[in-house]
Every structure is written in structure tokens, then in C-alpha cells.
Amino acid sequence: MTPAAAPAARVRRLTLTRFRSYPLAQVAFGTGPVVITGPNGAGKTNLLEAISLLSPGRGLRRARLEELAQSGGDGSFAASAQVEGALGTVQLGTGIEPKPEGTGARKCRIDQQPVPSPSAFLDHLKVIWLTPEMDGLFLGPPSDRRRFLDRLVLAVDGEHGTRVNALERALRGRNRLLEEQGDPRLLTAVEHELAELAVAVAAARLETVARLSAEIEAGRDAASPFPFARIALDGAIERLLAERPALEVEDRYRAVLREGRPRDRAAGRTLEGPHLCDLAVSHGPKDLPAARCSTGEQKSLLIGLTLSHARLVTAMHAIAPVVLLDDVAAYLDADRRAGLFQALDRLGAQVFLTGADPAAFSGIEASDRLAVRPGAVAPLAD
Asked: Helix (H, G, I), strand (E, B), or coil: what is residue 283?
């Protein structure tokens, strides 16, 4: 299904209680793009962060739960939204209870009924985002790009987060057994599970990279201000898995783990596996690694990747995701801003855009233009 033909998930009402800078806020949204403007530090990104919590993980800032609660409050917060999603209209909510009564654990609800985790929200909508903190993605450590990649995978494969978490637990368990020189039989059992998880995680990443590469290729447009990217996974298991059956790769990785025990014990960590792979990104038209591109080119590559990913999510799930673009237009020239707004219009998704200057968004037809000041949000006055 093409983006233009697909319906779109939409957040129709957002309610915040003791969340970041908002003691209490409720805002309704139309069906089109939402432009949120206001001075720096007023709370624009806080609104996007609340929406990002309607997906698995720690939101677009990767904040600790206690950081989300309003300063000086009782330690609790709540964020809920009325959503028109894949299964109709529902109320999604998340938050933590007041201390000391609360345990500090995150609570999640759908239509007021508790659910085990925010992964359940994926049945209703997908949320993807681009923030200024991601501008250094191509120059940062591989761990940043793996985290970025895993967010891409999670939007198309709801079980991916569970597998990644299980892989990280298995790695910690193996490292602890190596350090303590634990029972070799137990170490063998842990490595057996670790190999299964490692290959499952690597396979999910490879599949998403392949699908996204195909989407990028299909959507190439020489007139676009956002260059197409070439993407690939760089890792020993990933390269082997691209050529050999999964069961064979599992067996080979188990042998690597077994033979590498002395080396890994000395290092204090597991030195081979998908927890060390990298996402290689290059500027397609220039055939140049993204890390060697200019700052502007890197920003354009990120925007192009985000748009391609949104189209992929739409094609795979027959419903467009909610897209959060934080301060994305600030450093784009007029032509690139116009190109971005045209691309968003073709995407057909509900898009939230933030920025300090309302004039930067004069070229987009928005259903809502909101002004933010500390602790409050209201329609922008004409």
C-alpha cells in the first residue's frame, strides 16, 4: 500500500499530569500536521517526548522515569492520549505512581486496563522521531547507531525489543560466569541461549536493513533535497548470516564463544557478537561515508532516512506512523524546508514539528499551530 492510500494513526488528544514542565495540560489535535512553536526551554520537546512514550523504550530523550516527573512534585506523572490507531479509537496511558506508595515502576494502560508493557501500544500505533541529539549519529560511537537501528527495527517488528533485552541479559550472565569462573556446564547452557538470541537479533536487523534499502531505492528522486542513503550492517555474525543458514551460524558462534572464554575473561566482556555490530551509512549520490560528509549533508541524510523508514512502516503495516520532528527545520535553507514539507504531505502521516520561529513553518498546511510557554500550550494567535 502506498503512503497516499494508507490510513494514518493519529493522536487526537493528549493529557499530561505533572509531566516535565506541565503541572496539567490537555491539548486536542486535528488530522493534519501539528506545528508547535515557542521560546527555547518553554516545553515544546516535552510534548513530543510525552507522545514518544506511547511506544516501547524510554522515549525520545531516553530519560529515566524520575526525570519525567515535574520538579518539586510528588514524584509521579501521567501521560495519556486518545488515539485513532490500527484497531480503532483507544486511550493509551503511561506513568508512575506517587512516592512512597508507588514502586517507581512504569505503569501502562489501554482503555484504563493494565497491560504488561508499552510494547502493547504497538498494536495500535507506531511512533518514529528525529531529534537534534541525533545530528551527531554518524560521528558518534557504534552503540549510538545500533540504538538508532533497533528503533527502526522495533517499528516494523514489535518483538525486537524483547529479543534485544534478552540478549543483553544473556551477555551479562556470561560475563559474570566468566569473571567468577563458574560451572562450565552452566556457562555452556548460557552460551547456547546466547547464540540463539544473537542470531535472532542479527537476523531481525538484517531483514529491516534489507527492507529499508529496497524502500530507499524505490523512492529515489533526483530532485529531492534529501540525498538517498546506502545502508549496511558491519559485523562478523551479520556477514556470515547473510550467506549461511541461521542454525549453522548459531553453531559457529557457540564455538567462537567457547574458544574465546580465556580472552573474554581477561577483557571482562564478550568480544564478538551482534552487540558490537555497526550500521554503515553512506551518501548515495557521492558514494561517500556519512561520517565524511558535511554537517548539512549528514542532517539531510538523517531526514531522508526517517522519511524512508516512515514509508516502510506504512507499507508493512498498512497504516502510517505518527512522526515527531523536533526542531528539524531550524538549520534547513528555504529550498530544503519546502522539500521537507512536500515530502511530509506525500507521506500522509500525522506529523508533529517543533521550532522557535513560527515563520519557518509558513510553507506547511497545518491543522494545528500551537504556542508553548512554560507550563502551558494554546493555539497560536493570528
From this structure: strand
